[in-house]
Amino acid sequence: MKQESGVNDKISIDQVNRFTSQAMLGIYATVLISTILSLMLLGVVPSQRVVAWWSLSITVSLVRFTFQKKFLQNPATAESVGWHRNILLISLFVSGCVWGAAPLFLFPYASLPHQVLLTFVMGGMVAGSVNVFASIMASFYAFGIPAIIPLLVVIFSIRDGMHLAMGLLLSLFVLFMALANRKINLEIYNFLVLKYKNIDLINHLEKEIRDRQSAEEKLLLKNQQIESIVENRTKQLRQVNEKLRTEIEERRTMEKALREGEVKYKELANTLPQIVFETDAHGKITFANRNASELLGYSDTDFAQGLNALDILTVDPGILAHERVHAIFQGQKMDGEECTARTKGGRTFPISIHATPVVHRGRTVGMRGIIIDLTEQKRIEEAQKELHSQLQLAQKMELIGTIAGGVAHDLNNILSAIVSYPDLLLMRLPPDSALKKPLLIMQESGIRAAAIVQDLLTLTRRGVVVEEVLNMNAIISAYLESPEHAKLMSAHRRVRIETLLEGELLNIAGSEVHLSKTLTNLVSNAAEAMPQGGVIQISTTNCYLDQPVKRYAAIAEGDYVVLTVSDNGTGIAAHDLDRIFEPFFTKKVMGRSGTGLGMAVVWGTVKDHKGYIDVASIENHGSQFSLYFPVTRLQKAQVDHPEPIEAYHGKGESILLVDDVEVQRQVASDLLTHLGYRVTTAKSGEEAIDLLRNQSVDLIILDMIMAPGRDGLDTFREIITLHPQQRAVIASGFSETDRVKQALALGAGPYIKKPYTWIKLGQAVKMALGTRTDAA
Question: Is-above-0.70 flag for pTM?
Fold first, then answer.
């Protein structure tokens, strides 16, 4: 009973203090709502009543506020809780009476909306008091009954249907609010009961703990007294005990420091990306950090069962890792020894081991060290080697480009006479002349030599592949009937050619000259690889590629034509397979049968045709080159028969021919003169500009590259300042460059490549004169 009484006292104190802290909100609400209500009723109810009621409400609120501040500063205790409670209930009752006076003195009989407003405000005050006064149920009745009863009396006294309904609704609302307040009050009360019953239990436990601590202190005091008696009687024994206690404390300190050091060591080891390990004298791993499990795939159970350090090393030929591990137990160190580790799943990877023996009292009891995963390092090293190889190849290609530029320019100048003059001679010979065939062969050889120059430019990416519809079977047939092939076969009489060509071979798009040169290089290399004779097989087939070809990470899926050239010759050594496409790499005698550019040209041609190349070779058993070219669905254009020479004759138009090479000027001048044009020549851009200051010509044929002095672009820029509508043809031994495109953009055109032929030159001149004339 005493315990329950104590709990009830605490609950009462808690209820009063809760009510005190929440009642301040009710005071603020009273002041605010009474002020708003008074303002709304002004003009509807006599002002003196409104002001009097509002003043009374504010006064009561101030008195309540004063009590509340005092109670908040001095919370209720067991002695003052009854007084606090009574004061609060009385103040609430007074506040309720003030609100109950509002309908008696301020009821707006003349305005139904204001009546509803007053009813709404009074109901809202009761509803708002539910949560505020829930701690003490009596507080709800102390405020609600005097506040609502007068309003109900006034409403029911009017006795019409509307007011009866309002009264009933308000009565039901107040009833529901009372029930809600009761429910919340019970919940708070039950919560407080549970709270203070547990607190009593805790207090009881604390008391028992204090009592037990007191008993222990008394027992300790008794022990100290006994120890003091023993110490006084046996001083020597006390000294021994003191010394022993000191040693024990020192050992505990040392053990604690050792444990802390081990924890720090393990934490540090687990943060390292390398494998940190320790073994016993037999090599069994006694400690391995977290990264050991991640890299090696072994679990903590595997390590706990006595995994040996040698179990994670592979037996690599030439790497004496196991011997080096055994040497550590003899007192040696392992500093960066590279070997191969094997995971639990069988995967291997390169590692570097740094290990040292663990020595205790002069005897090796194990080893500890770090294992570094070299996988990424090896990958970076391989990538660096690859980048270095690519850099070397780029440097070689740049060197070839420099050489090719000069060689192409000079060879085109030399070949001009060989290609162009046969045209003049053929024009002047009778149709049945015996010299016609030799001249045609000479001209064809010159054209092929010019094509070789373009191959060299293609190799260095300075040539542009001609896009025409071709059939690889036709190219193969033309090659087998060519003088080059006949010459090759005469030099290798023991070599036979076999063909296996697809009957319905699809077409491809590209350059016939480049593809023919590629075939020539492959067949020539195959013949060179069979000094004792053999068979070269040339085959074609259609195929569909949907898987990457060797040496390519990815391919464009689709239809391809495959050209395969195979032999049964000496083959290619495995260590040379990755180098055969490098410029200047050859196993032939440089200057005799090889230049080191043949396979590089093959590679460049295949790449320019958006194709792929696959090589298979076994030393002393032959080689096979398979070239994949994407198929085109375009139809092959019909070959136009050349027009007669009369179609290109001029009408005496004046032409200024500008070229820094005398042979080129002479060849072009002779061709144009024979075609009926009046030709003037200039050996430089400066000379051409000086001539045009005092005269004009119908057309200029302008060499693009002239040295020293102005080139074709700078010359044409100056000329169009003198003659803005000047017609011009741009000529060059190189493919179309950026400066050629700039000249064409300024109005020059068309553009032709050297060496000259009468058809090519005649067409360009006719086009330039006709286009500008039509435009005019």
Answer: no
